[in-house]
Amino acid sequence: MTAARTLRDRALATTTLLMLVAPAAMAADLAPAQDPVPQATADAIQALSPWQVRVRGLGVITNDSGSVDQIGGSDLSYSNTVIPELDISYYLTDNIAAELILGTTYANVYGEGTIAGLGKIGKTWVLPPTLTLQYHFTDFGAFKPYVGAGVNYTMFYKQSGDTASALDVKDSFGAALQIGADYMINEHWGVNFDVKKLFLRPDFETTIGGTTYTGKAKLDPWLVGAGVTYRF
């Protein structure tokens, strides 16, 4: 009788223990796994802002060509300059970005060919905002080359004559091509090298010795820049 009671008590204790343990085990099986996010991954996600800015030193190298309609064999040349330049980029995807380039410079206009004796005709300031759509290659690690194409609208202001008593270069649209690369030092900072070609051929009107002349200034400048990149 005592042995039977002992066996019964053991069976009852085992059953009670199973009833207590089974729900906890089932809950553990049903709970989703919560793997911690690596800190490096979290930092990389946080660093991928769509906004980027660059500050460059920019060399503006013009094509020395142009003509005066009323004078055969005439030609023009322009001064080259070095200026500071700011651009703002917005990444639509990891590979596609839009870039707005802002900077201003001046150009001295000289007579060449049959009008070389005129010397410096005048001077104009140039504001050539340029918008390009770029493709960025992302398979080279910290080295990030890109190509782009877009449109330029150049405004001419503060124009003055020298040999000419008046100079009026007309605002003009033009196409733009671009190639460049960023080398990222870390997630935010990098260095940049960039080359653009603007196709810019504005009409102009000038007055020399009381006579009005018209023509076309074939500027077609190269914009060669180097500077610093910051990705927000």
Number of helices: 2
Instruction: Tally the beta strands.
Output: 15
- Oligomeric state of the chains? single chain
What structural class is derived from the secondary structure elements?
alpha+beta
Residue fraction in strands: over 45%
Poorly predicted parts: 24-28, 36-45
Helix share bin: 10-25%
* Number of domain modules: 1
Order of helices and strands: HHEEEEEEEEEEEEEEE
Largest sheet: 8 strands, antiparallel, barrel
Principal-axis shape: elongated
Spatial sequence of strands, sheet with the most strands: 1-4-5-8-9-11-12-15
Please give the CATH class.
Mainly Beta
CATH architecture classification name: Beta Barrel
Which value, in Å, is the CA radius of gyration? 35 Å
Ends apart, CA distance between termini: 83 Å
Give the mean pLDDT: 87
The CATH topology is given as Porin
Description:
By secondary structure, this protein is of the alpha+beta class. The chain has a single domain (50-231), classed as Porin (Beta Barrel), CATH 2.40.160.20. The chain is built from 2 helices and 15 strands. Strands 1-4-5-8-9-11-12-15 form an 8-stranded antiparallel barrel. Strands 2-14-13-10 form a 4-stranded antiparallel β-sheet, with no helix packed on it. The protein starts with a helix and ends with a strand. Keywords: Signal. InterPro entries: OMP/PagP_B-barrel (IPR011250), OMPW (IPR005618).
